[in-house]
């Protein structure tokens, strides 16, 4: 029957090559013609029972092996390789990967091994570049960075304060006189001045978007997945875009980004910055923050915003006439992927890092919704106050997994007494010892270590095993 035919051309070719035989020599040993063997190797003829038995007799091949399905492991590994942006689009489909893996499995395995070595070397080079940058050396790599990386690096390394945007949106807020209903005031502004109506649509009508502006019908559609604070932010984003697009564009140009895509990404980020400034006007927000000891939940309730909005806003309070505590923030997911880093004076990567697994921002996922407060100490004695909590993403349906991230807000411990969190820490409580990242940390016997430090050789001793998973020499 057709389904019982065995086509094993690539395997026969591998057997022949392993023996160092020509097709003529192998055909003679098997008692068939070279042309027939050529057809078999090209999978144009199936193996007969007599030929399988002859292969088993001459080359000691287990007949069962010839009937086994091709192992898809090599093809899957090759698929991982060709998913890399450098190779994306080079192959038309998965079938060619299967054919490569079947026809030349050793070459495929070698290619996969070489690719994985390349990725490991690239990661080490990135770590080394970061180490050099933190030491004050210019570690820029040749070639162009991706626009996303360019924008992220620019925003993370400079103070998260834009005076021109602050002044503009504060004037807008004063002209609105919103009272306790900023959302209503912004809806009226969009309707009366820009002829834009706001509508909330159900998930089945707008399944793939959180917001969409229909320029033809002049309507701003918002997803019902958004909670009230996030709906307010989306409306504020549209308002500041229409009112002060030129101010935001001027701020973007001042960065000197190298591509139109980078400028577009930066415009999105600064428009969101402007929306937060409109929702929490600088003067009123900074004054309230000082009075309540920077209590994030109290500020969120007072300004009808979310915990996330307040954390982002606290990193922007650097107006010369009324500066707040110079906070910095970090947002990650449960896998440790970094989404945002910002700081009132730039994110302090050189002093704080943010990648230490002992930070409370990573422990927060085990205690969703709880605010975790602690002081942390770097190896050089620098100490920080940190506040961490999980954030819930868009409202998910029953068959979807909730997107949960965690945010860390930090400042130098010298400012702790100005915050409600610092005043409630137990007097004399020891600080948690952390490092910038495992690759740059030389703390001995750290139970949380995930990688050896780049600055020390591994301590390989058959007689002694330390507490850390990666022992290293002093």
Which key terms come to mind for this protein?
transcription regulation; 474 residues; Arc Repressor Mutant, subunit A; 434 Repressor (Amino-terminal Domain); 3-stranded mixed beta sheet; DNA binding; 11 strands; HTH cro/C1-type domain-containing protein; 6-stranded mixed beta sheet
Overview of this protein structure:
The chain is an alpha+beta fold. The protein is built from 18 helices and eleven strands. It has helices spanning 9-19, 23-30, 34-41, 49-59, 63-67, 73-82, 94-103, 105-134, 147-157, 163-176, 182-194, 228-255, 260-279, 282-291, 296-302, 307-314, 360-363, 420-424; strands spanning 197-201, 211-214, 219-223, 318-319, 322-323, 328-333, 338-343, 372-377, 383-392, 404-412, 432-433. The strands form three sheets. Strands 7-6-10-9-8-11 form a six-stranded mixed beta sheet. The chain has a three-stranded mixed beta sheet with strand order 1-3-2. The relative contact order is 0.07. The model is unreliable at 68-72 (pLDDT under 50).
Blueprint (SSEs and pairs):
Elements (H helix, E strand, L loop, with lengths): L8 H11 L3 H8 L3 H8 L7 H11 L3 H5 L5 H10 L11 H10 L1 H30 L12 H11 L5 H14 L5 H13 L2 E5 L9 E4 L4 E5 L4 H28 L4 H20 L2 H10 L4 H7 L4 H8 L3 E2 L2 E2 L4 E6 L4 E6 L16 H4 L8 E6 L5 E10 L11 E9 L7 H5 L7 E2 L41
């Amino acid at each position: 029957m057709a389904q019982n035919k065995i086509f094993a051309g690539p395997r026969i070719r591998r057997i022949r090559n392993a023996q160092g035989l020509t097709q003529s020599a192998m055909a003679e040993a098997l008692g068939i013609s070279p042309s027939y063997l050529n057809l078999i190797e090209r999978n144009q003829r199936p193996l007969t029972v007599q030929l399988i038995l002859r292969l088993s007799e001459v080359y000691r091949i287990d007949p069962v092996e010839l009937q086994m399905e091709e192992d898809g492991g090599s093809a899957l590994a090759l698929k991982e390789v060709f998913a890399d942006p450098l190779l994306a689009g080079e192959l038309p489909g998965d079938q060619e990967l299967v054919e490569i893996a079947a026809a030349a499995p050793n070459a495929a395995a070698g290619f996969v091994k070489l690719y994985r070595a390349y990725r490991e070397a690239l990661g080490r080079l990135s770590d080394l570049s970061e180490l050099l940058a933190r030491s004050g050396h210019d570690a820029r790599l040749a070639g162009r960075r991706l626009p996303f990386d360019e924008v992220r690096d620019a925003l993370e390394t400079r103070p998260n304060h834009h005076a021109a945007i602050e002044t503009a949106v504060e004037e807008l807020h004063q002209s609105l006189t919103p009272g306790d209903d900023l959302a209503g005031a912004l809806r009226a502004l969009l309707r009366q001045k820009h002829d834009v109506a706001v509508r909330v649509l159900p998930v089945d009508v707008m399944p793939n978007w959180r917001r969409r502006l229909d320029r033809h019908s002049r309507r701003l559609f918002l997803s019902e997945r958004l909670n009230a604070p996030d709906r307010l932010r989306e409306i504020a984003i549209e308002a500041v875009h229409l009112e002060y697009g030129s101010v935001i564009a001027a701020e973007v140009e001042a960065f000197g980004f190298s591509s139109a895509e980078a400028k577009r990404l930066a415009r999105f980020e600064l428009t969101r910055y402007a929306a937060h400034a409109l929702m929490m006007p600088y003067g009123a927000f900074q004054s309230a923050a000082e009075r309540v000891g920077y209590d994030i939940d109290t500020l969120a309730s007072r300004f009808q915003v979310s915990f996330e909005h307040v954390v982002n806003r606290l990193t922007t309070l650097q107006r010369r006439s009324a500066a707040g505590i110079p906070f910095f923030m970090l947002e990650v997911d449960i896998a440790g992927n970094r989404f945002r880093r910002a700081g009132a004076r730039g994110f302090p990567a050189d002093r704080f890092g943010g990648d230490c697994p002992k930070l409370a921002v990573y422990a927060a996922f085990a205690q969703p919704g709880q605010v975790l407060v602690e002081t942390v100490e770097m190896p050089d004695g620098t100490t920080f106050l940190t506040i961490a909590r999980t954030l819930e993403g868009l409202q998910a349906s029953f068959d979807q997994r909730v997107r949960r991230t965690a945010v860390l807000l930090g400042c130098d411990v010298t400012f702790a007494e100005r915050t409600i969190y610092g005043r409630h820490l137990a007097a004399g409580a020891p600080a948690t010892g952390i490092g910038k990242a495992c690759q740059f940390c030389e703390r001995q016997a750290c139970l949380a270590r995930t990688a050896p430090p780049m600055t020390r050789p591994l301590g390989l001793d058959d007689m002694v095993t330390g507490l850390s998973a990666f022992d290293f020499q002093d």
